[in-house]
Amino acid sequence: GEVLVVPPHVRQNLQALGVDESQELAVLKLFVAHELVHALQDQEISLAKRFAQMTQSDVIDSLVMRTEGHAVMCSEMVMRELDLLPAIDTGRAVLTGTLKPLAELGSLLADRSTRCRSALLYLSGADLLYKEFEAGGMEQVWQLLQSDRQLTKLLRPRAKLLAIADRRSCFAGIDDRL
Fold this sequence. Notes:
Blueprint: H1 7-17, H2 24-45, H3 47-53, H4 57-81, H5 86-96, H6 109-146, H7 151-155, H8 174-177
Helix pairs in contact: 2-3, 2-4, 2-5, 4-6
């Protein structure tokens, strides 16, 4: 019954990223919208009850990816409606803890792992939901949210893969690329 957003944390994150603090209010609006989407998800698909019943990590991660991706997508749609476009990139940077989620050299493996996980569950989740939205509108998005598809099935390409006739040909030119 509560939506929690801590405004000083927005400012701290912007400072940590070295981002202009003039975006603080817009980013705060983005995260309030994000959390309100979770409240709507709880009303529509009994989100809290579903989490409480899950025990397998892949199933939990799948639901996290779908619900967080949905919250990212919808909050970004709100920012577009409010003409607060810079908040979108900044919000994505806050979610992953960096302006360049996967490209920072020299960071600790644990930090990179956390950033990759956030990028996967939040941002790749949002990308997946945007595709669902484009293919069938919000109704198709809600169908995906209600499903129990595992993460591995969500991430598999939908296009049919070509059969490999000669396995050796797969490695042609690999020395040049390595």
